[in-house]
Amino acid sequence: MIARIFSTGFAWTGITLICTSLCLTPIAAAQNVDTPECVQETYDALAHEKRLYRSVLFGQKSADILPNGSVEFDREGNAWIKKNTNQWRSMAQGFTNTIWTDTQVTQQTDVPTRRGIFEIRKSPTSDLIPMITQAFRAYQCRLRAVCAAAEKSQTADPTDTTIQVQPDGCIELDEPVLRDCKDNTQETVGANTCEKVITSMLNQEEQMLILLTAYDASYRTLMQFEGVFEGFLSDFRFPLINPLWQTVRALGGFAHMPCFLSQCDE
Fold first, then answer.
1. Number of domains present in the structure of the chain
2. Exposure letters 38-69 (e unless 16+ CB within 10 A, then b)
3. Which in 55, 158, 172, 211 has the greatest CB count within 10 A?
4. Per-10-residue mean pLDDT for the chain, 266 residues long?
């Protein structure tokens, strides 16, 4: 009797485990569904933030003064390369046979024309560090805002064009709705995967800033030394060379004399 009870109990336990696994399998599969369109749109938004951040550091010039071979991106994220003077071409779908002018590229670029922090002249690097630090802080907030927008776009209203997000420690930002992330079942797009990507991006930019500030400080110091030393050489050159020039001019005047004084009576 006891053996029959145990066997019956094990049988019900096995049936329960099988039913539980069958019931939970669709849910786990739904959470792991990959949506390449949502991931690609999220990466495009992160790439735009990186180009915007780089323009704050190095500036963004208008298309007409950029050399041939320069690459710019329009508001849709399509890349355009300058093939010739006032001629821009793109390999993006729908633009393979299109030629844009410098004016069109300047008007359609996703990053506005501006002067960068490192383009500021007559200033030591120490005065630029607060602005660089603030720019990097804003870059962190904007990247995390993109991840938050990617997550909230999954349940966004179809009529909404922007989403209000506020990453921890940042101000509230209005981000465009990522349409390809609508009804996306992969919850890790905005929670884990995106966070790992921006961590890698921030680490790269942090190392680049260390190199940039060291190079900029060295270059500006060299320019200051050159300016001071050039003034020193100018002040040192003329007092030293003027007597020599006077001596040369005096010796050159001897060529116009008809004879030496001791021989003029012969």
1. 2
2. bbebbebbbebbeebbbbbbeebbebeebeee
3. 55
4. 43 43 37 65 92 94 91 90 92 88 91 92 90 95 92 82 89 88 58 80 94 92 78 67 74 63 54
